[in-house]
Amino acid sequence: EKGGYDHFMLKEINEQPRSINDCLRGRLNASEGQLTLGGISDYLSKLRQADRIIIAACGTSWHAGLVAEYIFEEFCRIPVEVEYASEFRYRNPVIHEGDILIAISQSGETADTLAAMELAKSRGATVLGVCNVVGSSIARISDAGVYTHAGPEIGVASTKAFTAQLSVLSMIALKVAQQKGTISETRFREMLAHLEQIPAKVEEALKSEEQIRGISELYQDAKNFLYLGRGYNFPVALEGALKLKEISYIHAEGYPAAEMKHGPIALIDEEMPVCFIATRDGSYDKVVSNIQEVKARKGKVIAIVSEGDVLIPKMVDHVIEVPNTHEAFMPLVATIPLQLLSYHIAVMRGCNVDQPRNLAKSVTVE
Ligand code: M6R
């Protein structure tokens, strides 16, 4: 059942070229310039006219929501608020009729996310679901939605569900942008072509596994880890840190790289591994300066870079290359080495990666 892998988590990490493909298939056709999202087709005009979009989720699904915020704002020019479902439901939030709430959930059973939807619905908002489990509670209470089609995810650490969520949210954003006219037809087609190539790029990124195993050996006894990224890669930093802490029990924090100098920089010494997501995008030069700041304080730097980068390898302790893509889709690729890093560190520490202590696959109590 683990398909020859030692753990479900590793199987699910390796399944991603296929699970992303399954998610895109039948929806995206780049050569025809077509994008069809049957589940929400009746809600596209509402989305196009929305004054704002609220995204509610927990954990890794919340990270997918943060990436979606950047994509929706860039391409659709609709303001987006990403909410921890648990906070949203209890703070008497301002919700208007005409607001749209998108709930993101692998299991479709997360109690707080479900309650956030019920609240939004009771105040007249439209609620859309991005779920993996077909027929789940969240899928059933949604007005409409798009399934992620990643297949069953057994490992408690979410991996393939996350990349499928990013794929679905990217498609929704592109579709809305097309309808709204906030993206040109040429750019729309280019973006579809980028998205279609993601499964092959994820396949390529998986090839770094041996190298990542080597890096994991060096850092398996670390007490702390920092993950830093900017722009689209900021949520990837959060996700990398969450993955490491939940399965290896190493304390890890993710930050937007520029926030480092507002506090976390005080933690940096020769004992502190810092993982930068430093791919070639609009924030590249800024991230390079942040790397220099860490190296000046003798931090150990592991950098996820775009293939062919010649600058960063000269500055850091370890580089892991990933294929390049449009920056909006980089989280789909850049998250792969971070999944593998946390997996290998956890295995080396003798942790139960598929069922970490104290954690349940779906959190059905608040
Ligand atoms: O099933 P959901 O996507 O609603 O679950 C949300 C979180 O509980 C979940 O992502 C959790 O953070 C994972 N263990 C992360 O790997």
Automatic annotation (TrEMBL):
<keyword id="KW-0808">Transferase</keyword>
<dbReference type="GO" id="GO:0097367">
    <property type="term" value="F:carbohydrate derivative binding"/>
</dbReference>
<feature type="active site" description="For Fru-6P isomerization activity">
    <location>
        <position position="361"/>
    </location>
</feature>
<comment type="function">
    <text>Catalyzes the first step in hexosamine metabolism, converting fructose-6P into glucosamine-6P using glutamine as a nitrogen source.</text>
</comment>
<dbReference type="GO" id="GO:0006487">
    <property type="term" value="P:protein N-linked glycosylation"/>
</dbReference>
<keyword id="KW-0963">Cytoplasm</keyword>
<keyword id="KW-0032">Aminotransferase</keyword>
<dbReference type="GO" id="GO:0006047">
    <property type="term" value="P:UDP-N-acetylglucosamine metabolic process"/>
</dbReference>
<dbReference type="GO" id="GO:0005975">
    <property type="term" value="P:carbohydrate metabolic process"/>
</dbReference>
<keyword id="KW-0677">Repeat</keyword>
<dbReference type="GO" id="GO:0046349">
    <property type="term" value="P:amino sugar biosynthetic process"/>
</dbReference>
<dbReference type="GO" id="GO:0005829">
    <property type="term" value="C:cytosol"/>
</dbReference>
<dbReference type="GO" id="GO:0004360">
    <property type="term" value="F:glutamine-fructose-6-phosphate transaminase (isomerizing) activity"/>
</dbReference>
<feature type="domain" description="SIS">
    <location>
        <begin position="43"/>
        <end position="182"/>
    </location>
</feature>
<dbReference type="GO" id="GO:0006002">
    <property type="term" value="P:fructose 6-phosphate metabolic process"/>
</dbReference>
<feature type="domain" description="SIS">
    <location>
        <begin position="215"/>
        <end position="356"/>
    </location>
</feature>
<comment type="subunit">
    <text>Homodimer.</text>
</comment>
<keyword id="KW-0315">Glutamine amidotransferase</keyword>
<protein>
    <recommendedName>
        <fullName>Glutamine--fructose-6-phosphate aminotransferase [isomerizing]</fullName>
        <ecNumber>2.6.1.16</ecNumber>
    </recommendedName>
</protein>
